[in-house]
Amino acid sequence: MAISPAAGKIAEASKLVNVARLVTAYFADRPDPEVPAQRVSFGTSGHRGSPLNRAFNEWHILAISQAICAYRKEQGIDGPLFLGIDTHALSEPASASALEVLAANQVHVMIAPAGEYTPTPAVSHAILNFNRGRKTGLADGIVITPSHNPPEDGGFKYNPPHGGPAGSEITKAIQTHANHLLEAGLSGVERVTLAEALNAATTHTHDFIEEYVGDLEQVVDFDVIRGANLKLGVDPLGGASVHYWARIGERYGLNLTVVNETVDATFRFMTLDWDGRIRMDPSSSYAMRPLIDLKDKFDVTFACDTDSDRHGIVTRSAGLLPPNHYLAVCVQYLFEHRAGWRKDAAVGKTVVSSSMIDRVAAKRGRKVLEVPVGFKWFVDGLLGGSLGFAGEESAGASFLSRDGSAWSTDKDGLIAALLSAEITGRMGRDPGEIYAALEREHGKSTYERMDAPANAEQRAALAKLSPRNITASELAGEKIESILTSAPGDGNPIGGIKVTAKEGWFAARPSGTEDVYKIYAESFRGKAHLKRIQEEAQSMVGGVLGAA
Predict the structure, then answer these.
(1) In sequence order, what DSSP letters do the residues of 98-124 get, joined into one string?
(2) How many other β-carbons are positioned within 10 Å of the β-carbon of residue 455?
(3) Which of 288, 374, 461, 502 is most buried per CB count within 10 Å?
(4) Nearest to 240 by CA among 409, 65, 95, 437
(5) CA–CA gap between residue 480 and residue 129 (Å, rounded)
(6) How does pLDDT run across 395-452, given as a tens digit for each residue?
(7) Active-site residues: which are they?
């Protein structure tokens, strides 16, 4: 992975997105459903793309919104739909398009007052709150966001009544219906004007901030944070949580400073990511450079991405923590300090997350549920309380309320961030220091993700690999203990393969959008051992793909 010489620097003005051109393309350009890249496509986090290549235009949003209305009708979902947006330039135009369709279909829509931005976890929490104890009249939601993607992108995702990301069966149905509508030139899409939609009897305002902030003490112990008199810093990265943090600080009496309250659709204040692009990724040391530079001014600092479903934790002791490190710290802390949780509550992790999590969980007598990539696989466990904590290596996590009830069934960057303050306050050590102790106890993890070239046919072959395709008996000098194409926690396909030995493993998964496949690898025997794992992974997988 070649690092751009501009990484970690502020973008030149000439490189910023032209917002007027972007919005014009959203409304003016029409996608061609005969071109695969211009069709509706739901990945792990909804439909994403840019109007500049006709992958996220008004026609997409009108078609998806109508398909969601049809799905709601088929499933008998007739409660309110909670609609949230982030700060990307396309989120507000897409929200207007969606509202025109939702109002025409007589869907009761709950929107934030005065066009306020709404984090993904606030939508999930609102859905769960409304549906608690109900059997009928259930609510669902839409969040318009491309997450941490660059400023020229838009995104649109659907959360059904369980409050979390829609599963594959749901997204496939919505995607298929939406593409049929595109092919029919939007015939079948019901729509009113934006003025009619805003004034419709079915359009209501909902104070997401008040509900979410007011309930936070159910999931975070603010007494501990206040008692430790911690000095906290937070950077919303120009995202949807921008107006939440001051309210949190005021409500709970925290010494919390929002270091940057700027909202600008070009995101000109961000330092460039590894490839020289603007990306609001709180797990990137390049994108997080300004906050890392402030680490010694606060006891702990943190950030969220644009829709606030991902977290980044910066400590005095270690700087920006890799997501896997912080997930392991969360597991240790939560399962020692949440007496209200079920005694058999397990830890949820994805197949590409660190094995340090398994070692920490085992030490505390907790089972690990290992699932494919995607937070949707954790929804049932969080909803029912069988999972106390669930996390992804890409810095997404959520956990139960202190009494063991569901807080959010989608990723929640705000509670993950606030938990770092609770941990520091109670333990007298920051999460970086605690992770260092975990390494002394369980061994030092060396983890890395890399890309390798693969064309469309090879990526399709990788997604269909069988354990029989791997003929090796050893991985980097150790006996191979397992070869998996299905996740051990739930039996669902992982869309690739994972090979595990005692002190290391690798997983290979195809990219859904680029001509590469991703290799995730970890070693507990150092960098040289990790490099050998990576080389053998490329050899094993490459040998199979070479025949594709």
Answers:
(1) HHHHHHHTT--EEE-GGG----HHHHH
(2) 12
(3) 288
(4) 95
(5) 46
(6) 999 999 999 999 999 999 999 999 999 999 999 999 999 999 999 999 999 999 998 8
(7) 147
